[in-house]
Write a structure and sequence with these properties.
Layout lengths: L7 E5 L4 H12 L3 E6 L2 H11 L3 E5 L5 H15 L4 E4 L15 H33 L2 E5 L12 H21 L4 E7 L24 H8 L12 H8 L11 E4 L12 H8 L4
Parallel strand pairs: 1-2, 1-4, 2-3, 4-5, 5-6, 6-7
Helix pairs in contact: 1-7, 3-4, 4-5
Bound molecules: nicotinamide-adenine-dinucleotide.
Nicotinamide-adenine-dinucleotide binds next to helix 1 and strand 2.
Protein name: 2,3-dihydroxy-2,3-dihydrophenylpropionate dehydrogenase
Pfam families: adh_short (PF00106)
Organism: Mycolicibacterium vanbaalenii (strain DSM 7251 / JCM 13017 / BCRC 16820 / KCTC 9966 / NRRL B-24157 / PYR-1)
Length: about 280
């Protein structure tokens, strides 16, 4: 028996990167999966790859009507909804405050918060009645930037901190029927884009040397890929294994927050008068 046998999951932004790996893993664990995806080609590729195990809906996660359409299509296809995964997001490519032109701040804020925070809220509202019906769960993709500085600029970091707040508030409001949790991954190569207001809509995260970056930032000192994060979602979605978790955020970012600043042997010798 697999961990998600007979479960129905809806993933926003399931067309590439982490979302696509989640679709694959959920299906491997026995689930049927709805996808809400903005990019038509990515949505079509998901449908072509997994056939009737997926229900792929083209739409915008920042629109309530599109979230509602995705919930309805998923329930029409598979009969119910057990878990909503809010996942579609935008990054700010670490743009620091000083490099944000004053006139860019409002539109860039609206784009990033509009998807990363409002998109999750709209998805949760659209799925709420179905999730109550199944006593299901919500999982939001957070980020290391939901806990630590330096994983983005102020716009992205603030948006992901806001997602941690959403997890706690919704967990508080929706218990006992619906569990609400988050997963906070760290870096991984993906097609993650930036806001139009910063002219980053065509720049993909994996145009950067992401493997090297992650290897240097994580004390685990290894590259991490989207599929490496999917087990945390499976655990939280699983009725058999995740039933006691609500209001939690699984921090699985490769340990960036505990990387700290290591003392070199030279500094240690100077400070303590002895070697490491
Ligand atoms: N890549 C990383 O290093 C990293 C690290 C930590 C957290 N995250 C988070 O992981 C999540 C997934 O990002 P990813 O890295 O897999 O990027 P990605 O761009 O590969 O995947 C996001 C998907 O969402 C889709 N999308 C974008 N806007 C949408 C909208 N308005 N409506 C519906 N779909 C939309 C995209 O087309 C894409 O398929 C995001 O929330 C991101 O903040 C990513």
């Amino acid at each position: 028996m697999d961990w998600l046998d007979n479960q129905v999951v809806l993933v926003t932004g399931g067309g590439s990167g982490l979302g696509r790996s989640l679709v694959e893993r959920f299906i491997d664990e026995g689930a049927q999966v709805g996808v809400l995806e903005l990019n038509e080609e990515k949505a079509a590729a998901i449908a072509a790859r997994w056939g009737d195990r997926v229900c792929s809906v083209v739409g915008d996660a920042t629109s309530y009507a599109d979230n509602e359409r995705a919930v309805q299509a998923t329930v029409a296809a598979f009969g119910k909804l057990d878990t909503l995964v809010g996942n579609a997001g935008l990054w700010d490519f670490g743009t620091p405050l000083e490099q944000l032109k004053p006139e860019q701040i409002s539109p860039a804020f609206d784009e990033i918060f509009g998807l990363n925070v409002k998109g999750y809220l709209l998805g949760a509202r659209a799925a709420l009645a179905e999730l109550r019906e199944t006593r299901g769960s919500i999982i939001f993709t957070v980020s290391n930037a939901g806990f630590w500085p330096g994983g983005g600029g102020p716009l992205y970091t603030a948006s992901k901190h806001a997602v941690v707040g959403l997890v706690k508030q919704l967990a508080y409001e929706l218990c006992p029927e619906v569990r609400v949790n988050g997963v906070a991954p760290g870096g991984m190569p993906s097609d993650l884009r930036g806001p139009r207001a910063l002219d980053l809509q065509e720049t993909a995260f994996d145009s950067l040397p992401v493997d090297e970056l992650v290897q240097r930032l994580s004390p685990l000192e290894a590259p991490i890929h989207a599929e490496d994060y999917t087990g945390h979602y499976v655990l939280l979605a699983s009725r058999a294994n995740g039933s006691t978790a609500t209001g939690s955020v699984h921090n699985c970012d490769g340990g960036v927050g505990v990387a700290g600043r290591k003392l070199t042997e030279k500094v240690r010798a100077e400070l303590f008068g002895r070697g490491a």
